Amino acid sequence: MATATGTKADHSQMMRLKFDELLTRTNKEHPAPADVKALAELLNSNQSLELWRSVASAGYMAELTVLENALVVRGLKECWKQRLQTLKRELGSEGAPILEQLLIQQAALCWLKLNLVELSYSSVMKQSITLTMGVYWEKRLSAAQRRFSRACETLARVRKLSRNTPALQVNIATKGGQQVNLS
User: Fold this and answer.
1) Would you state the torsion angle of the CA atoms of residues 141, 93, 161, 150, taken in this order, to the nearest 10 degrees?
2) Distance of alpha carbon 61 from alpha carbon 54, whole angstroms
3) Same domain, 112 and 36
4) Based on the structure, what is the number of domains in the chain?
5) Is residue 117 situated within a structural domain?
6) With a cut of 50, which residues of the chain have pLDDT below it?
């Protein structure tokens, strides 16, 4: 039995090493088509290993891109990156069902974007600007606020629906013919 487990572990490790090698070779502007095909075949033939999990998600890459494009100093970006991770953890991302994890990531990203737009808006509004520029920034800020609100509402709705277990209700008749409902 130890030999079979050892062989399975060895195969798993070998596939992970091959995955890392192929990922490095294909993670460039114009990878060789044969390498891309080999990576796809490796992923498809080893689905149980979930090799793709070791690669940063598109949502995480979006977070990094938003932070990277923020017009602030590097130190603030690093602090905000940590704040974003803490926010997701505080919203319950760890241990949450996958749908909730995705919605938490979206809500956190919308929160970050809203705050960056608010920062830019505040900076622009302290200057003398044209009416067109003012309308542009008002619309941009309103859109960011709507996205954040929708992301939070959707997360709350999904949480409510997923945890909506029927309550036990007991009807008790009291003296005088009145009925009391207890949940």
Assistant:
1) 10
2) 13
3) no
4) 2
5) yes
6) 1
SS3 state of residue 75: helix
Type of residue numbered 106: Q
Residue 183 placed within a domain: no
Domain hosting residue 67, numbered range: 58-162
- Residue 27 contacts residue 18 (beta carbons within 8 Å): no
Same domain, 70 and 42: no
9's tokens = 């572990």
71-82 pLDDT, tens digit each:
889 999 999 999
Extract the tokens encoding 51. Answer: 């090799």
Burial of 144 (0-12, 13-18, 19+ CB in 10 A): buried
Token code pair at residue 92: 């319950």
User: Which pLDDT tens digit goes with each residue over 92-124?
Assistant: 999 999 999 999 999 999 999 999 999 999 999
Integer Cα distance of 181 and 170 in angstroms: 6
The answer to whether residues 105 and 154 touch, using CB atoms and an 8 Å cutoff, is no
